[in-house]
Specification:
By secondary structure, the protein is an alpha+beta fold. The chain has 3 helices and 5 strands.
């Protein structure tokens, strides 16, 4: 199980990335940003968001790719979010 400090850093990095780019990072990008091994990033992501974890946060079934990270969706939905004229996010 991933330690709480790493999970906190992971959560913060994912949220900041989505806010700034409109897209959730891949675990290989997370590994680089947090300066951890790729496999550690992947397992940490599963520890944070895997089955039975937080509601509103899920991985695309059968993958280790972020599908939804509340209140954002990484997969396009009918809920396009626009802030100050900028529209790069999808809502749940």
């Amino acid at each position: 199980m991933t330690d709480l400090k790493t999970l906190d850093q992971l959560y913060t990095h994912i949220m900041k990335t989505i806010v700034s780019t409109g897209v959730a990072p891949h675990y290989t990008e997370i590994a680089s940003a947090l300066e951890i091994e790729v496999e550690e990033a992947r397992t940490s992501l599963t520890d944070l968001m895997g089955p039975g974890k937080m509601a509103g946060y899920w991985l695309v079934p059968g993958t280790d790719i972020i599908g939804s990270f509340a209140p954002f969706n990484n997969v396009p939905t009918h809920y396009k979010i626009t802030v100050n004229g900028e529209s790069k996010w999808w809502g749940q």
